[in-house]
Q: What sequence folds into this?
């Protein structure tokens, strides 16, 4: 009996020592199943990044000036009504919106002198003064600062046979911008090239940045009025202005021209 008690005590002691060793041993330190699953399925967090942008346009401030706007014909709000289904104010605003989208996608900041069918002078100190629309546009452009200004218009003539594209500038610093925009629109549309001309339009004369006013086509010409009423033609012109601006900036900066990575078409 004494031998049995000693043997039993020894076994009990040995079992307790074994249990203590198992509890204190590091053994398999793998996390619980739920934690292992999360660790294996969750990729390391990465810093969020935006679109690649455009080396020539990223960070630029571009002022877009779609002509006219508003509902008072006596103030010239409609611009040229022409012989087509759409007035100038509608066409140029649509072109400017498409161009703004392209520019923003490329990383540029866009300032619009109007982004709706409104007179830009409405609600400003220029609302009740002569040439209030123009003064309001110039004031907004001056406030924005920016790198360039592109004013978009439709042309008119007493002769319905006249057609084509013209771009205007005033200061010598703006001549190259006007030249590149003119070339791009003429090539894209296949329109008659009426040239780059110097003229003292307020919106290109009184702003502190390179500025050009593009007359994209004649709304008094039946063929051009019909073309400019088509959404596809407006997108085409916006893309051309985008490419012309890139070419100008590439030349101005001395950068090697690269094909643009974005297009609405």
A:
């Amino acid at each position: 009996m004494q031998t049995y008690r000693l043997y039993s005590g020894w076994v009990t002691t040995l079992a307790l020592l074994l249990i203590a060793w198992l509890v204190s041993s590091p053994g398999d330190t793998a996390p619980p199943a739920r934690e292992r699953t999360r660790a294996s399925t969750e990729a390391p967090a990465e810093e969020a990044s935006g679109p690649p942008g455009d080396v020539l346009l990223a960070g630029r401030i571009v002022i877009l000036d779609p002509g006219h706007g508003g509902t008072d014909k006596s103030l010239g709000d409609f611009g040229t009504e022409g012989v087509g289904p759409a007035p100038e104010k509608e066409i140029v605003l649509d072109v400017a919106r498409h161009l703004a989208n392209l520019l923003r996608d490329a990383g540029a900041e866009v300032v619009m002198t109007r982004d709706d069918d409104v007179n830009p002078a409405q609600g400003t100190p220029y609302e009740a003064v002569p040439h209030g629309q123009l003064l309001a546009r110039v004031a907004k452009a001056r406030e924005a600062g920016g790198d360039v200004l592109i004013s978009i218009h439709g042309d008119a003539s007493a002769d319905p046979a006249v057609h084509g594209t013209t771009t205007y500038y005033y200061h010598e610093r703006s001549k190259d911008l006007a030249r590149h925009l003119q070339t791009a629109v003429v090539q894209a549309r296949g329109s008659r090239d009426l040239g780059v001309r110097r003229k003292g339009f307020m919106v290109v004369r009184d702003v502190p940045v390179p500025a050009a006013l593009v007359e994209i086509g004649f709304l008094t010409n039946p063929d051009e009025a019909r073309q400019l009423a088509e959404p596809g033609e407006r997108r085409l012109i916006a893309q051309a202005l985008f490419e012309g601006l890139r070419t100008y900036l590439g030349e101005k900066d001395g950068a090697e021209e690269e094909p643009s990575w974005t297009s609405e078409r």
Q: What stands out?
A: The beta strands are 61-66, 109-112, 148-155, 165-169, 193-198, 211-218.
